[in-house]
Every structure is written in C-alpha cells, then in structure tokens.
Design brief:
60% helix, single chain, three-stranded antiparallel β-sheet, mainly alpha
Length: 551
C-alpha cells in the first residue's frame, strides 16, 4: 500500500529531504485524486494508473502534463520505497565477457535491441555461456516488476529473435538458442482461395442472391443486404469455414455452405469463441457468426424445419437476447453522470478550434483539428451513425432550404440509414456558423472543383470513416480522459434525454431512428431502471422528512 511507501520514506535517513518531499507530494496528490487514503491505495503502479484512468480529467481537474509528471515521480517513489528488483543504474560498466560480445555486434539495430538484456545479465552476474530460456525468463520477470508491465512485451518478444540472429552472425556468440515467442496468440484464418472451388462459388452465388440483383426473381430476398453487410457476411463465412477446417483438420472437406449450416458444425465453429466464466459467454462477434450461419441455413440452404429448430436452440446458449447496453457502454455513460464531464465535452469543439487558431500548425493538421471539432459538434446534436457522418455531402445530406442564413438540415433518406428510416436533424445556428466557417476557410483552401464531401483531407479526398472515428476518439481522450467512440454518442444522447425526462423512450426512438419501439426499450432498459431508482430515492427522502424526531 502507498502508506507503507510513505512510512519507508519517513524512516529512510539516506534520502535527500527535497527528494523525500517530492516523492511524498506525488503520493498524497495521487491519493487526493483517487479520493482514497494511502492505506487503501495499492503500492503497484499499474493498479494505480488503472484507477486514475477511470477518473475523467474534468473530475480530478489536473492537466495532462501534471499527470505525466506525477506518474513519473510516483514510479520513482515506488522503486525507491519498495523492496523490488532494480535495473542496473545508468553508467554501470559491463562485465568483460558481455562487453566483448556487445562490441562484436555488427550493427546498431542488434546493439540497441540487445542492450537491455546484456546490461541486466551483466548486472545480475549471469555469464554469456549460462544464458538459457530459464535465465531469460528471470530477466523478463525483473523487467515486468520494475516497470509494472510497461514495455515488457517488446522485451519478451524481440530479444529471443535478436539473440538468435546474433548467434547466427557473430562467431563468438554463445551457441545456446532462445525460444522465440509467437507473433500472435490469435489463430490465423484461411483465405477463401484455400477452400475448394465449389465452396468459393457457393459463397459468391449466395452473396449475389442476398444483394437482390433481380427483384423480380421468384426467390428474390425479401430484404436485399447492403454492400457493407455483404462485405461483413463474406468475412464471417470465411472465418467460419476456416474455424471449421481447423476443427476437422482439412480445408478440402469444406465444399459448400450446407456443411457450415449443419448444427454440429455450427457448434464446432462457435466453440473456440466460448469464454469460460464470462457473462455473456459469447462475444458479439460470435453471435454475429451464428446469425449469419442461421440466415444461410434458412434462406440459401433451405434447411429442413427440424434442422432449423435445432439451430434455434443454440440461441439460448449464446444469450443473444440479453437486454440493455453492454458493460462497456454502461461504464462509459456513468462518467457523464458528473455534469463537469458533459460540460467539458460540450466545450471541447471550441477548445479544439482555439488551439488550431493559436498554435503553429501545418495546413493539413489545422484542417484535421477543425474537421474533428465540427464532427463532434454534429454528433452532439445529430447522433447519426459513423458511416452517415463520414458520408455527409454538401449537395445531398446537407440542405439549406432558405439559403446560408437560414437553418441547415442533415437529411438522411430511407436508403441511407441502417433501419431504413428517413431522418432529419436541424442544426442549431451556432453549429451552422461553425459549419460555414469550416467550409469557407478550411475545407478546400485554395482549391476548386466539384468535390462535395464535407469531411475531406488536404488533397480534397473524402476522409475514411475509420480515420474520422480515430480522430474523434483520440481528441476526446486527450481532452477529457474519457473513452467514447462516435457510435457511443447515440447512447449518450439517449442518456441525456432520459435523464431530463425518464419516460421519454419515444423521443429517444425518434432521435436515434429506431424502427421499432421495442428496440429502444430493450437497449435502454437499464437507464429507465436507474431513473426509477432515483425517483424512488426521492420518495424515501420525502417520507424521512415527515418522520418524527428520534428519541
């Protein structure tokens, strides 16, 4: 605990008073930010940093530079005050054997990559000829304990590979070979070309049918899939086939989609994605695989009713009907219970613009800053999906029915939304002014043409949705210390509406463009429970006020 570190600093007579004061101040500042006493805060840097990460910047009120300085000082205090393994002090000379080997390394890349290993082995008294997997693992443990897990992965992953390379290139290098760590623990999935031609043709035929190319065909799909859904289905079928091939031990047996749709094979596909002890036991990705396989079985393979019934039984195991938001989304929204966090988010776009105008930046960087500020402004008043945000065009979705001085509308037609619901969002005048300023001054400076995309790069090309998402997420993380994605602005909009008016589930449905009210009720059931609990608390407090004074 940090209280133990404070006690050790008080007892240490060999430490300079100024250093002791600096270490003590960092510990007490940390405890103040966490609203905890030193006796309950763990003396482990990684745990402390995780606790700090959960507190938005608006709550603790410290600048990011202050946090960085405090983190560095806290680490030094923990290393000094706790009995943990130490790294070699800077400037520690190498043992002659290690110094000779380091000088023999042929290039800077190897010298730099192996320097920590060489320095630590020399400091611990491990001779070059005694190096082994066991000795290296002990060094990994030292690096992990000293740095609390930071930068240990590159050390553990890269050093064995570099050591073996040095063994092959340097004649005097010790002959022992270190076991190299696998690049990734994730299973690799086969490409579609690895499967028989019959399977590839079946996949392409299914996707062409699902796209609804001929609406008058006798077996035309009731609802053709969008191009983005078709790309997702192709990838899901590839992963499903690859997973099944791994279970069966041979990709050549996966000859058609009918094989994937068999209940026993669906179980084989889903089993590797099961997470013991988790609730729910399967991720959204695994449930997506099941939905696709079930759809293929029903609409393309034309499976028998008994087979479809057996497939439907798997739905209970997947727990695909769990109501409410995910744990991640609920955790994110709780941070906005503090009005300071929401206020900081509302003020962030103007702060980004101020930084862009007052600091020296390249033209492309200033455009990026202004683009992110406008995107956040739009998401706050028009919580559209990311694809719709990135796809806004001046000649289509953005409309000025009364000219530039009138109201600007974001208009999404039926064929442009996920739920096939037409949406229309009027932008407030302040955001209209920011929009016009962005278009006139930053969007395409000094360029002409018919490019009508709203969010473009410095060359006039439309910004990909992934780039826009990353820019928004990183800007909010830097400014607020909060992790929120563009899609989660939809959940935030629902929270703000339900906080102000707990029964306004219909308003949320219209705001988010849900086709079915049950979808809205299912998604935000937890919020309604929370508001009901707050109302009930008010009833209790009112009853307490009427009770006679206790004797």
């Amino acid at each position: 605990m940090l209280a133990d570190v404070l006690a050790q600093l008080d007892r240490d007579g060999g430490i300079d008073d100024a250093v002791r004061k600096k270490y003590t101040a960092a510990i007490r500042t940390t405890c103040s930010m966490l609203s905890r006493t030193p006796d309950v805060v763990p003396g482990d840097l990684s745990q402390v940093l995780q606790l700090l990460k959960e507190i938005p910047a608006a709550v603790h009120g410290r600048a990011s530079k202050t946090i960085a300085n405090m983190r560095s000082t806290l680490k030094a205090a923990l290393v000094h005050g706790l009995d943990t393994p130490k790294m070699p002090p800077r400037g520690t000379p190498l043992e002659p054997g290690w110094a000779k080997l380091k000088d023999a390394l042929p290039d800077r890349r190897l010298r730099h990559g192996l320097s920590r290993l060489i320095g630590l082995a020399s400091y611990q008294g491990v001779n070059p000829e005694d190096m082994s997997d066991l000795a290296f693992q002990r060094m990994v443990d030292v690096v992990r304990s000293v740095n609390w897990g930071r930068r240990v992965l590159p050390f553990e992953r890269d050093v064995p590979r570099l050591w073996n390379e040095a063994r092959a290139r340097v004649p005097e290098w010790p002959p022992v070979r270190l076991t190299e760590r696998a690049a990734s623990n994730r299973p690799s999935h086969l490409p579609l070309s690895a499967f028989p031609q019959t399977f590839q043709e079946d996949v392409e035929a299914y996707l062409a049918w699902a796209a609804g190319g001929d609406p008058f065909a006798p077996d035309a799909p009731t609802k053709p899939l969008k191009s983005s859904t078709l790309r997702l289905r192709r990838e899901q079928l590839r992963i499903a086939a690859s997973t099944l091939a791994r279970q069966l031990g041979d990709a050549s047996v996966v000859r058609d989609l009918a094989l994937l749709a068999q209940p026993e094979n669906v179980k084989k596909i889903l089993r590797p994605f099961h997470k013991d002890g988790s609730d729910p036991p399967f991720s959204e990705f695994a449930r997506g695989l099941y939905i696709t396989l079930h759809a293929v079985a029903k609409t393309w393979v034309k499976a028998s009713p008994s087979l479809l019934a057996e497939l439907s039984q798997l739905k209970r195991v997947l727990k695909s009907d769990v109501a409410g938001l995910t744990k991640k989304n609920r955790t994110m929204l709780r941070q906005f219970d503090d009005p300071r966090v929401l206020a900081n988010l509302l003020a962030l776009p103007d702060l980004l613009r101020k930084v862009a105008l007052t600091r020296r930046m390249s033209v492309s960087r200033r455009l990026q800053q202004m683009r992110i500020a406008l995107a956040i402004d739009i998401l706050l008043v028009a919580p559209v999906r990311l694809q719709n945000l990135a796809g806004l065009r001046l000649d289509r979705q953005l409309q000025w029915p009364n000219g530039r001085s009138g109201t600007v509308y974001i208009v999404l037609e039926v064929d442009e939304t996920k739920n096939e619901q037409a949406l229309e969002y009027p932008l407030p005048d302040r955001i209209r002014d920011h929009l016009l300023n962005y278009i006139d001054r930053y969007r395409l400076p000094g360029k002409t043409g018919d490019n009508s995309w709203l969010f473009v790069d410095n060359g006039g090309k439309p910004v990909p949705s992934g780039t826009l998402r990353d820019g928004i997420t990183k800007a909010i993380k830097r400014g607020l210390g909060v992790d929120i994605t563009p899609h989660q602005f939809r959940h935030l909009a629902a929270k703000i509406a339900l906080d102000a008016q707990p029964g306004a589930i219909g308003l949320v449905q219209s705001l988010l463009g849900h086709k079915n009210l049950k979808t809205t009720q299912k998604s935000y059931a937890g919020m309604r429970t929370r508001e009901a609990a707050r109302f009930y608390d008010q009833l209790l407090n009112a009853r307490i006020d009427t009770l006679p004074a206790a004797r």
